[in-house]
Queue: 2 jobs
Job 1
Amino acid sequence: MQDENAKKWSGRFSEPVAELVKRYTASISFDKRLAECDIQGSLAHAQMLNRVGVLSNEDLKAICDGMAAILADIRAGRFEWSLDLEDVHMNIEKRLTDRIGDAGKRLHTGRSRNDQVATDIRLWLRGEIDTLADLAEELQTALLDLAEKNAETVMPGFTHLQVAQPITFGHHLLAYVEMLTRDVERLRDCRRRVNRLPLGAAALAGTSYPIDREFVASQLGFDGVCENSLDAVSDRDFAIEFTAAGALVMTHLSRLSEELILWMNPRFGFIDIADRYCTGSSIMPQKKNPDVPELVRGKTGRVNGHLVTLLTLMKGQPLAYNKDNQEDKEPLFDTVDTLTATLRVVADMMRGIVVKPEAMRRAVKQGYATATDLADYLVKKGLPFRDAHEAVAQAVRYAADQRKDLADLSLVELGTFSPLIGGDVFDVLTPEGSLASRSHIGGTAPVQVRAAIARHRARLAGAR
Ligand code: ARG
């Protein structure tokens, strides 16, 4: 039912907006999150209007004072957001006008909510990107600490989830450090395109006032201005590419989580996850469930979904601004929230991982992980690789029948598979020998793992 006292949007309208429509079109429940950025943007705009002679000194002073009071109210939780005022922009502007009168009504000169909202989101996202990049680097530090302790810890490396070759646990963890390095690079690269000022585009075509956009940009710490007014108010590609970068962060953390879950399973028994990161079962008393990594894996789907949401939101929109764009906020906010919480929780979880080196070593032995090393040994003695491959295949089959590891066979037994095998073969059949031989940049030899850790630490120290 229409409230008798409800107000019309403007003199252009013959009746007020329907209650149902008000609720449908309002964004205040979520965009109030942009409030501080909205005020920051308004203050820069007002200063610019004053500078170019469009706003008097008294009006500017009133606006600055009024906004300071409003900001204090918001921070103290005293500000009452009104659904009738639709969004964060109109809520703040109306409150300003209630406080300071006509000066408040002059603030919107040469501006539209279209360039205003685009500015707010960019300001907000820029700050969040900086926080996320820092959090990703903190996770890298947690991974590096664990890798350093395990630079020599032997574990099986897998392909097809079958034991392949010995690696060190430190080397395995460093793979994730590399992924996160690229993730941070992507976030920082995306930030360069986020950090451009839309304000001045007004509704879509620019404004007839003698505005100084460069001044506003420098006030707000933007690297430059968006150079086409239609593009400035309408595109959200910066939000899409941020979400894509976020989806990759989550994808990497999801893979790590999947591994933690497998490694914690008693069939592997490679690690333990601290009790504070696990939960029990309400029916099975013996259970300890890796809920946190499972949720990381699950929440990855959520961020991937947000990416598709934003791409779909954009694809059919004609230039310039359309109300569709109001739907950009919830997926973007949730992407930031999910990433922030996930990076924090994973970093802390990694600090509580207990490694079980005996189980890792046992798995290396059971899987004939040094078979490639034996083949390489024969090749170095002159046998063509394909023949060496076959000779070792026979040896593995024999060892499996004997329920022994290759390194447990005698020299006489090994000699039956190739006359080239000598006493020095045992140097390559041990996991340590295998690891040490892979000593090039990117290899799993403990010296290389330590060198890679040092490089990453130096990079992180430089970034701070
Ligand atoms: N709440 C709107 C949004 O989030 C602000 C811009 C509205 N502009 C307009 N002309 N209706 O996009």
Note: The pocket of arginine is lined by residues 27, 31, 87, 113-114, 117, 323, 325-326 (CB under 6 Å).
Job 2
Amino acid sequence: MTVRTRFAPSPTGQVHIGNLRAAIYNWLYARHAGGQCLLRIEDTDRERSTPAAVQAVLEALAWLGLTADEPPLYQSARTAAHLAAAEDLLRRGRAYKADKGGTGQGECVLFRMPGTDMHFHDEIKGDLAKPAADLQDFVIVRSNGTPVFHLANVVDDIAMRVTHVIRGDDHVENTFRHVALFQALGAPAPKYAHLPMIVNAQGKPYSKRDGAAYVGDFRAKGYLPAALLNYLALLGWSPGDDRELLSRDELVRLFTLERVQSSPAQMDPVKLQWMNGEYMRALPRAEREAACRAVLEARGLWNDALPADYLGRVLEVLQERVKLFTDIAAAGYFFTEDYPYDEAAVQKRLRKPGAREALAAARSVYAALTDFSAAATEKALRDLAAARGASFGDWVHPVRVAVSGTAIGPSLFHLLEVLGQARTVQRMAKTLEKFGG
Ligand code: GLU
């Protein structure tokens, strides 16, 4: 039997990472098994399923390279098939009409549960059961004639010949109903795998209040799709050893449902950032620089007058400080003389007694240097501090704030080397003028 999985999102807004992870697992599982991965857009909620929301799903999948093996099936186009199934169930006494709640709004169609205890095997959670008393008949067609999620979901899974349903564990309760529907419709139920929730550091469902939660957020922040794919694949699954950087091909080769954990998976944005940094550094240099340049251009920081190898040298100095392309913007001072001064840094480092005197002395020494390598500027500053009997730090910090406007950054002397002597000295002079009084 060929494995057929499907990702069946309800496009109601942006794509949450929990949904994206479900898409990834469906895709990996199908690829691993040499089967097919399908896409079904569950767009029956006419108010919330806007074209923009559908577009967001398609774009998210395309961005991560999660291609489906057949054209997407739009559930809204399948109403006739859903209603035909309801008719069939009515004819065979497996469903009945009733004015539910006696609202006088007309009759809806209810599915008749078998009246027995229900159980199913979940590939991740094991055997799950529910007593008959907890399984009430339920509406499958509303009084206005529209099919309900449970019916549409099952009828379409049958039509698409889905063999494995991999989805969020918020659907576990629904599955007892779905299994009963499969049975009543004379179709074998698929295998089920319900994925544990993604939670925040407090163990609560991870939401946008905890940070970036939608695929579009990560994209806008400059994450690489390959890094997000790798990270989300590991959010609830592991290859069985402690490897963390896994290519798409390795993920496909290693992915099994047995290794999906049943406990909630904790989202760790710091780890994702680290992973993105690893992927970024593995990119060909030209690609990395082009992406950083695009960020700088978008923020008006790109300067054509700088040497061709300048951005490359900046990135070398910044090293793992750039975990996202957008991180380059925090080092905007490399690219413009018009960099902002961080008020707190100015207070702490430049307004301190002796700081401006130190800066002025350092400026004179730097202006006279004939070698402006990192080693030379460091030695010069050390000698200066030692000669004045001052601590090195008292000299380093004012220089850093003067040339970059901020108290944080990469190795100062490498920064100076990249800036070059003229710009360094000019920046120190400008800063003294600005905060001299
Ligand atoms: N549209 C449902 C959801 O997004 C789908 C569930 C399923 O995969 O069966 O939660």
Note: The CA atoms of residues 140 and 149 lie 8 Å apart.
